[in-house]
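Reproducibility note. Readers wishing to regenerate the assembly model reported in the main text can use the exact inputs given here. Chain order matters: entities are listed in the order in which they were concatenated for prediction.
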Amino acid sequence: MSSRLGLVLERGRRPGWLKSATARAISYVIVGLFSAFALMPIVWLVSLASKPVQELMTIPIRLVPRDFSLFANIAEAFKYFDLLTWLRNTVIVAVLLAMSDVLLSSCCGYALAKFRFPGREVLFYFILGTFMISFIVILVPLYIIVKDLGWLNSYMGLMAPKFVSAFSIFFMRQSCLSIPNEYLDAARIDGASELRIYRTVVLPLLRPAVITLVIFRFQWEWDALLWPMIVAGSERLHTLPLGLALRASELLHATTFTASSIFAANLLATIPILLVFLYLRKYFINTMITSGLKL
Amino acid sequence: MQLDSVAFRQTRLGSLLARGHLSVAGRRARSGLLFAAPAALYFLVFWIYPLLRAVYISLTDWYLFSEPNFVGLENYSRLAADPYVWQSVKATAYYALGTTCATLLISLVLALLVNGTAHGRGFFTTALYVPAVISWVTAATVWMQIYMPNAGLYRVFLGPVMRLFGVQQIRWLDGRAWAMSAVIVVSVWKSLGANALLFLAGLQSIPEEILEAARVDGASRIQTVFRITLPLLKPTVLFVVVMLVISAFKAFTPIFVMTRGGPAGLTRVLPMYVYEEAFVAFKMGRASAVSVAMFLALLGLTVAQVRFIGSGGVYE
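Running the prediction on these inputs yields the following structure tokens for the assembly.
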């Protein structure tokens, strides 16, 4: 798996199939243009977050604001929006879900990869099948279930649809498959219980997979809108994406004094995940490649 | 086989069921089941049971604040005749078609081009992947500004063209002509990098020997691409297409943030419609019916895609 990753990220492993210099030049231009297109909104976000409200709607449109007010906007963002509450809720949910997801999916993936029991194949395809159940179908009944459990407007309710995801199980199973059987057998011969083996042999070996899943989970929570919107009744429980989304429509009337601070808030929300991405790039890309190639 | 015979007890199932001494295989199997049980249980309770319940609710006329009455397939026949439902289906179809085709084409071309040059691969793949890392909410918020008729960023790039045609402003998100395309552009922007990466990985897993053989046989570079590389990429293409369609059918956040269903419901894709029916109008029965129908349609669509694209693989 990591060699695949290396192939994609490293440069110059192969010379590349384009031969003529013109072909290569053209391809650099095209790819460069799309890269700029990809990055442009991020740069623009920084620019928008640094502008005072008056400058947001002025023509001509400038990249660098005449009146740099990023920090003022950030301060306003904290004043107008309940950013800390949103952040707290999002982080709590993300951490709890990351823990439950890693625990449940590693156990299940381990079982699917290294044990043989009746119904194993059925279970695997069954879990794969839940991939197909789009969240929209279970939206209403899940809401009813959460309501009946008394979990509405609580952290448990926010977590309900995502204790463990089929993708994590799939991913963990892939990772467990590459654990050499010799380690497990050696531990068994030494008399360790299965639980002990799982804790002391399997889990440490799964560390990159665990990190990947934690990142994946955090990225997901920073993004989740539909379910939190339905479950979080009171504003006390709003998550970061929910709060920001509900305020986004204020942009339409940029004469609203909060317009700049919305961009500042979004920038604040984006920076952590961007930094994590730049440093731990391979963990992000790992999920993509594994899911695509090993199917 | 007799259920109390020794032979049966030596099978995995038999050793599991045996009351007395478990064999090694049996003990192993039991541990495996115990490890797998929590996750399996979770899926049963929180995914399978709701799915069944959704089907049941779709057969009632349940309005959240009243008692549900069983009405059979009435919801389904009603929604088959409902113009709003069909508008939503059309919007979803446009959206799915637009995002899938555009993303597929662009990310495939990008992957081929990046694979074709030796330098800067790391930089390009990282840059292209950044939109995928940004949260949908932030992305939608920024693009909302970019699309603003008076002072959005789009003016910087389209300004000359607009002046040419004497157009003062373009109503992207609240105009009937461009709303859907505008949303599609944002979706494509977001998923370019991830899919290009997938294709890139697929491209690099093509064995060097095959390409060598083609070159030795005198195939031009272009011929190699179309006759050999692309057919070998079919599994990846299939995967990408299926994933794109499935996520297009699920799209909620971009629509909600940018258009709320668009000018006169033009961008009200199915998830948006279900959300409004269920949590704004509280018509749980109807909402369930729509979502179940959508689920079945998506299932059928996926099977069709696998059949259509998956067959005729190079190694068959």
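We highlight two features of this model. Residues 24-58 of chain B form the longest helix (35 residues). The CA atoms of residues 130 and 282 of chain B lie 38 Å apart.
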